[in-house]
Task: structure prediction
Amino acid sequence: MCRKRLSGLAVAWRISVVLGVGILFTSLLSSAGVAEQESRRVPLIYCSDLFHPPDDPDDWFDLATAFSIDEFDIRGIVLDQGEKQMQRTGRIPIEQMMAITGKKVQSVYGLSNKLKSPSDKALDQPQEFQKGAKLIISVLQESDKKVTLIAVGSLRDVCAAFNRAPRLLKAKVERLYVVAGHSDGGNEYNVGLDPHAYVGVMRSGLPIYWLPCFGREPFVSKWGFRQGDLLGSWSLRIQNYFAYGLMKADPTKVDPILVLFKPIPEEVKKKAWGMRRSMWSTPAFIDGAGRKMVVLDGRWRALPGKHVRQRNRAFGFVPAKVTVNDKGITRFDDIDLNSSEPNMLVFRFEGTLDDYNKAMRQSLEGLLKELGR
Ligand SMILES: [Ca+2]
Result:
């Protein structure tokens, strides 16, 4: 009896040892996985002239793209042009995205007035609109990793933050994607919002990835699609998010969160789905997250780098010395691709413009496909 009982205890002990080792091993493996995942996370600050109702709804697509990529740890969103934000807040689409994804992201209003010079610190602008430049500085100070910035719109808050803390930005900015400007001498909308800010940023010496919005091919990031071609394959919540912005819904009449779950009226689809949309920033999000472009089963996808053995190229960035004049103009001759002293990386698409459009359309479709399901 006694012997039997002892051996029973021994068996139980062995089982518990095996189980314990198993649990220890599994938890070591999963914590290694979590650590690996964490090390691939990209701290991101996103600066955008995102409004509701939108100026240009491309910013709504870009916001959804930022939220769709789990490698991004979005540390903050700076909403461009603070005074205008008070009337037409970009917080509405951000709140919708937070409700859809469960992610929490802080957002602040940026500087409201144009910079007076490329070196303007903008400390004399109203206190209520200082939060953008302050957020950029505090996120960089607090982050133990370098931080990536993606900036569209006026670039005012990035420029003011740099003018206030140039050494901090040089030390802590991993990459600064500038989605603004023209590669062949033309004026461009984002530059026009604040020419001094654009000039200050482009001359900053920060690690700039420049995506010219217009100009000489292939140094142009613009692409486009018919909205219905993509919206139809996304979840009801995502469709409602876009319908809300595109139809300029009134938040005092239609709740932006409750509406996400409702069926979409046919007349709304008829109107919004048929519109064409021009886009500029998608490659910045894909590249900034470390995603790789790849063709799988005949379709372009932007996948996490570790899943990609053979990458296909839809776009890339080439080193160049770029000169920008005091008005924010860069002629094509001012982009020196052979310089031994490049000051930034310049976007270029690969193949034809049609190839690039197709690659972006299909990869955006894939990126947003799982959102809200
Ligand atoms: Ca915009």
